[in-house]
Write a structure and sequence with these properties.
about 425 residues, alpha+beta, endopeptidase fold (from Nostoc punctiforme), 6-stranded antiparallel beta sheet, 8 helices, 6 strands, elongated
C-alpha cells in the first residue's frame, strides 16, 4: 500500500507544481499516465531503498575493516608483550646461570682444599694428589681408584655438594639457552605481527577511503532521486546512522540489563529442601526465658571507600585529559593512543601498572560482572566468550559511559558503553 500512495503523492506534486503556462484546456491525465507516474515513483523508491542498502553494506564493511585492524594491532601488542616477558626471562636465567657457576667454583675450591688438608704436608702422596688436581681436574680425580679411600666419611657431604652444584650449573645453563631460544622466537613473532598489523591498518585506511568515495557517489544518486541537495542528503544520512546507532545501543543495554536481572534472580532462588519428618511423639514446648533488655547499638560510621577509589579517579581524570587526541595503533602517548595504551597510561596515573596489551590487562585484573562496574574498571570487547579473543579495552567512567581510543579515524572520546556492540568482559585493576 505504501508505494501507490507515494506514487499518487508524487503525481499530485507534479500536477500542483506544473508550469502556469500550461493550457487549462488540456485534457486531464489518463489512467495510463497515472500508472506510468506511479511506476516511476515506485522505481525511484526502489532505487532509494537499494541505495540505502548499499550504504548500510558499505558502513558494515568499514566497521569490519576497522575491527580487523584493531585485532591485528592488539595481536602486535601481545607479541611485543610476550617478547618483553621472554627477554626478562633471559635476563633472569642468565643471572641464575652466573650465580650457579660462581657457587660451583666456590664448592669446588672448598672441596679441593678439604682433600689436600687430609694429607701430611710435603708427602709424596700430597704432591701426587696436587698434581692430579692441577692436571686432570677434580672430576677425573674423583673417578680414580687411588682417591676412592680418601673421599670417605667427612668428604661425602662435600662431594654431594659438589655434584649438586655441578647439576645446578648445568640446569641453569640449559634454562638460559632455552630462554634465549624462546626470546628469539618471540622476536620473530613480533616482527610478523608488526607486518600483519601494518597490512591490516593499511587495508582499513584504504577501505575507509574507497567506502567514503562510494558513499558520496550513492548519496549523490539519492539526492537526485529525492530532489534534494547532496548536502541535505548527507545530513539526513548522518541523522539516520546516528539514530540507528542510538537504537542499537539502547537495545544492547536493555538486553544486558535483562540478562543481569535473570542472573540475580537465579542467585536469589532458594535451593529446594527436603521436608522434615514429624516427631513420633508430641513434646510439650519448653518454657522460654524472656530476653534481657539490651542497650541500643550506636550507629556505625559508614564504611570507608575502596582503597583504590583515589587511583580510579586519577585514572579517569588522566583519560579525560586525552579526549580529542588521535588514535594511532601501538601508541601509548604522549599525544596519540591506542586502546590498551590509553588504559595502561591512565592506570599508571592511578598508581597501578598494566601491560600494553588488552588480553594481559584482563588477565592481570580481577574479573567482574557488568552489574559490579564502578568508575575506573576496565571494559573489554572480544570476538568470543574467551578472554584470549579480546581486542579492545576502555575505561569505565560511570553512568554507562566509557573513555577510550576507538580506532583509526576516531580520536579518544567519552561515549556510551553500548555505542557499538555489547562488551564481552569486565575487570577491576
Amino acid at each position: 500500500m505504501r508505494r501507490p500512495v507515494i506514487g499518487i503523492a508524487l503525481l499530485a506534486l507534479v500536477l500542483v507544481t506544473a508550469p502556469a503556462s500550461a493550457d487549462p484546456t488540456d485534457p486531464p491525465p489518463s489512467r495510463s499516465d497515472v500508472q506510468k507516474a506511479e511506476q516511476r515513483a515506485e522505481g525511484a523508491a526502489d532505487d532509494v531503498e537499494a541505495i540505502q542498502a548499499q550504504i548500510d553494506a558499505a558502513n558494515a564493511n568499514l566497521e569490519a575493516a576497522a575491527v580487523a585492524a584493531q585485532q591485528a594491532a592488539e595481536a602486535y601488542n601481545g607479541a611485543r608483550w610476550r617478547l618483553q616477558e621472554a627477554r626478562t626471562a633471559v635476563r633472569q636465567a642468565e643471572r641464575e646461570s652466573r650465580r650457579t657457576t660462581r657457587a660451583l667454583a666456590d664448592v669446588k675450591h672448598d672441596y679441593r682444599d678439604a682433600l689436600l688438608t687430609s694429607f701430611v704436608g710435603g708427602s709424596p702422596e700430597l704432591n701426587a694428589f696436587s698434581a692430579a688436581l692441577d692436571s686432570d681436574g677434580l672430576s677425573t680425580l674423583l673417578d680414580r681408584d687411588s682417591t676412592a679411600d680418601i673421599v670417605q666419611g667427612e668428604f661425602q657431604e662435600q662431594r654431594a655438594a659438589y655434584e649438586a652444584a655441578v647439576s645446578d650449573a648445568q640446569d641453569a645453563e640449559q634454562v638460559a639457552e632455552d630462554a634465549a631460544a624462546a626470546a628469539a622466537d618471540a622476536a620473530a613473532d613480533a616482527w610478523d605481527a608488526k607486518d600483519d598489523a601494518e597490512a591490516a591498518v593499511a587495508a582499513a585506511a584504504s577501505a575507509a577511503d574507497s567506502i567514503a568515495a562510494e558513499k558520496t557517489r550513492l548519496l549523490g544518486r539519492m539526492a537526485r532521486l529525492q530532489g534534494i541537495s547532496v548536502a541535505l542528503a548527507e545530513e539526513r544520512q548522518a541523522a539516520l546512522e546516528q539514530q540507528a546507532q542510538e537504537q542499537a545501543a539502547l537495545e544492547a543495554q536493555q538486553l544486558q540489563e535483562q540478562e543481569q536481572e535473570q542472573e540475580q534472580e537465579q542467585e536469589q532462588e532458594p535451593e529446594p529442601s527436603e521436608p522434615e519428618e514429624p516427631e513420633s511423639e508430641p513434646t510439650e514446648p519448653e518454657p522460654t526465658e524472656e530476653p534481657e533488655p539490651t542497650e541500643p547499638e550506636e550507629p556505625q560510621a559508614p564504611a570507608p571507600p575502596p582503597a583504590d577509589e583515589g587511583g580510579a579517579a586519577a585514572a579517569i581524570a588522566f583519560a579525560r585529559d586525552q579526549i580529542g587526541e588521535p588514535y594511532v595503533w601501538a601508541a601509548a602517548g604522549p599525544g596519540s593512543w591506542d586502546c590498551s595504551g590509553l588504559t595502561m597510561a591512565a592506570w599508571s596515573a592511578g598508581g597501578k601498572s598494566l601491560p600494553h596489551y588488552s588480553v594481559a590487562q584482563y588477565e592481570q585484573s580481577t574479573p567482574i560482572s557488568a552489574g559490579d562496574l564502578r568508575p575506573g574498571d576496565l571494559v573489554f570487547w572480544g570476538s568470543s566468550s574467551s578472554a584470549s579473543s579480546i581486542y579492545h579495552v576502555a575505561l569505565y567512567a560511570g553512568d554507562g559511559m566509557i573513555i577510550h581510543a576507538p580506532r583509526t579515524g576516531r580520536p579518544v572520546t567519552e561515549e556510551s558503553m553500548y555505542y557499538w556492540v555489547p562488551p564481552t568482559h569486565y575487570a577491576r585493576p
